Amino acid sequence: MFTQTNKKSRQNIAQGTSIALDNGYPTRLNFYKDPPLLEISIEEFEQYALDRMQVLTTLLTAQMRNLTPEQLDRTMNEAIKKYMPMSSNRAQEATQDHQYERRKDHISHFILRLAYSRSQELRSWFLRAECALFRYRFDREVSSEQIRFIVSQNLSWKKVSDDDKRRLASELSASSFKTTQKVQEETYFEVDFEKVTGLVGRRQVYLKGGKAYVPMADQVDLVLDEFKGRLANALEVTGRALPRMDEDDRLMPVLNNINKQYLGREFTTSAIAGEIQAQDVDSLKVHMPPCMEHLHNEMRREKHLKHWGRMQYGLFLKGIGLSLEQALIFWQMAFEKLTPDQFNKQYAYNVRHSYGMEGKRTDYTPYSCRYIIQNNAPGPGDRHGCPFRHFSAPNQRAILAAHDVDDFDTEDIMSLAQGKHYQIACTRYYEVTRARMLGITDNLKGGSIHDGEGNVGMVASQESIEHPNQFFEQSFLLMKSRQSQGESVGPTDGQNGPSETPQPTIKGQYVYKKAGAGAQFSSNSNHDMEM
Question: Any idea which positions bind [4Fe-4S] cluster (predicted)?
Fold first, then answer.
């Protein structure tokens, strides 16, 4: 699992170059008060940051998609095991593994703190993500480790004495809806009310003389507020100090690009749809994400696309399997106002260049959602970009209406887009439109869908949409599996037994319904930009 460089780091830790486990990392929880003091390579620096990004984005996406606790744990366990394992103190593992894992957690937090201190928007995202990760870890830690961590922080919380609990029994009972006996059995802490504004806002604590009386059961809110306050202050301090690092040409390029990194699969060429001919593209439009479908429609209408539109759409077509030879035919047919000679002089070079046959001979890959959202914003006359990021609200509604998305689902998708969760909005669009294409009018919830005749199928992917070509592949595989299985349940290859083709599934707790029917959906629209 570890690279050669990582093995060297673990050896250094074992030889005493790190803080001792019992002194520096007594538990898996950390307030990240002090920066780590050790040397690591630039390769480790970047890898640690990207590994932590994987965990943070997995958690935030899972929370946005309203997964059940079981689904959330399964998703997070996979991500943590792959990118940032954190063994408990009860695990029968070598001490150096504990030290390495917790040191990596420590280092990666500070790397991202540097990377995400450059603007208020980035700071807000990082604060929200780190608070979510801290709460996730705290909730799943055993109580003895929680107490051990709290004690190690020397927090200025006064434990309420038994005499004070008896004196305030009626007030504490009323604020927590507990009996007087339960109040006497509970441990309470007296803290400044500013430290637990969340609990105060929800009226879950008793207030007197500027103090809040917090039961042990609500300690996670108490600890989380402490963590959030410290990290928010630290991010402001880091943001002010960051300009002094501008001359460091080793770290700044890495820090400036971490939040722009696409962490998923690269789509170079695909055989999912077979050998695509130029004349096949129109029939494949049904599987395209809205950004590419819009480019296709505008190209057909105007018989032309400007540079960034050609790049975004051309690389997408390359990724789904359109060869260079067929791409040249496709674009020449699309730009039908031009003569073959005009096309060869003005555009053929750029097509060959994108396939790595001209210039530096770079084999360009299709743009990810992150790249489309964050780069080359469309200007007047441009048709590229992400509809959920760059289009006006009326234009977004027009796209949804053109695909018969009903009012409830439209508001759902629009609220996600307006909350800057563009990729999750696209994922929800995928779920709604693919279900409608399959004639599904019943529940779409928790991993399965029903077609109204008892047949159970699958609609979306285990992850949110991160790449236009991912959208295309999922849609194509879904339709192919449904066509090949006929009325049967589960994918088949048309011969004997199940197909080996990987099948998409769905995550989330959404209910798909007929237009006008009742619906259930839980969504928090108060979000920062999805990174």
Answer: 291, 369, 386, 426
| Domain end marker among 151, 178, 198 | 151
Beta bridge partners of 445: 448
User: In the sheet that 188-192 helps form, which strands lie side by side, from edge to edge?
Assistant: 158-159, 188-192, 211-215, 206-208
Same domain, yes or no, for 313 and 431?
Answer: no
**Residue 35: inside a domain:** yes
**Which residues, 6 or more positions from 427, have their beta carbon under 8 angstroms from its beta carbon?**
65, 460, 461, 464, 465
The residue segments making up the domain with residue 432 are 416-531
Residue numbers in the known binding site are: 291, 369, 386, 426
Pairing of strands 456-457, 444-445: unpaired
- For tokens 């210039």, the residue is 359
Give the other-Cβ count within 10 Å of 371's Cβ: 17
Letter string b/e over residues 165-202, b meaning 16 or more CB atoms within 10 A of that residue's CB? beebbeebbebbebeeeebeeeebbbbebebbeebbee
Query: In angstroms, what CA-CA distances link 448 with 76, 96, 302, 428?
Result: 20, 43, 41, 15
At 207 the three-state DSSP class reads: strand
Per-residue pLDDT of 106-144, as tens digits, reads 999 999 998 898 888 889 999 999 999 999 999 998 878
- The number of distinct structural domains making up the chain is 4
Cα–Cα distance between 427 and 412 in angstroms, integer?
12
Beta carbons of 276 and 320 less than 8 angstroms apart: yes
Q: Of the residues 188, 207, 222, which one is the last residue of a structural domain?
A: 222
Asked if residue 424 lies in contact with residue 416, where contact means CB atoms within 8 angstroms, the answer is yes
Task: Give 435's strand partners.
Answer: none
Do residues 26 and 146 share a domain? Answer: yes
Q: Which residues are annotated as a binding site for [4Fe-4S] cluster?
A: 291, 369, 386, 426
Residue 449's H or E segment, with its range, is strand 448-450
pTM: 0.67
